[in-house]
Amino acid sequence: MEIQLDQTLQILTRTPHVLNTLLRNLPDAWTLSNEGGDSWSPYVVLGHFLHGEKADWIPRARIILEHGESRPFDPFDHFAQFEDYKGWTLAQLLDTFVERRAKNLETLRQMNITPEMLELRGTHPALGPVTLGQLIATWVAHDLNHLGQIVQTMSRQYTVEVGPWHEYLDILHG
């Protein structure tokens, strides 16, 4: 699917509202539970979303627009949320995410990105050359990926409780 910025903005605008509707005022058993090991709870994923709003999408878009491939992106710390948002309530994370995302989307709109600009290139520290279009498409896919992760983690809290219906619920397998 070719990137259509207006459609991209529709998805990116909805993510905070989806998270707010899904998670706000739920008991900790739903928001702090994970799938064991190093898996992330919905609370941790929300912190990751917040860190991305600060250090990933818009800063990297600016680097592409201002420096092209001559200045690589700063490395992204995939675990910064564990320190940066330690002690924050879920409500604080949700409220801050809503604010930051709105601000970032306004910044994106103000960049007045044309279809030609989507082909501008930058340098990812691990992946090498990437385009602005790929960055923006990844922002959308990243949102959807982590929304799926949250829903999967929450669903799997009832893996045993669903009894024999387990075989019909693909989200519980794996």
Q: With helices defined by DSSP (H or I, 4 residues minimum), what is the helix count?
A: 7
Kindly provide the name of the CATH class: Mainly Alpha
Report the order of strands and helices: HHHHHHEEH
Indicate the low-confidence ranges by residue numbers: none
The secondary structure category is mainly alpha
How many strands, which pairing sense, and closed or not: the largest β-sheet?
2 strands, antiparallel
Q: What would you report as the Rg, rounded to the nearest angstrom? A: 18 Å
The CATH topology annotation reads as Four Helix Bundle (Hemerythrin (Met), subunit A)
- N/C terminus separation: 29 Å
Q: Looking at this structure, what is the CATH superfamily?
A: dinb family like domain
CATH architectural arrangement? Up-down Bundle
What's the average pLDDT?
Answer: 96
Strand order of the largest sheet: 1-2
User: Please, how many domains?
Assistant: 1
Characterise this structure.
It is a single chain. With 174 residues, the chain is mostly helical. Helix content is 56%, strand content 5%. The chain has a single domain, classed as Up-down Bundle (Four Helix Bundle (Hemerythrin (Met), subunit A)), CATH 1.20.120.450. The chain has seven helices and two strands; from the N terminus they run ααααααββα. Strands 1-2 form a two-stranded antiparallel sheet. Helix 3 runs parallel beside helix 6 (90-110). The model has no long low-confidence stretch (mean pLDDT 96).
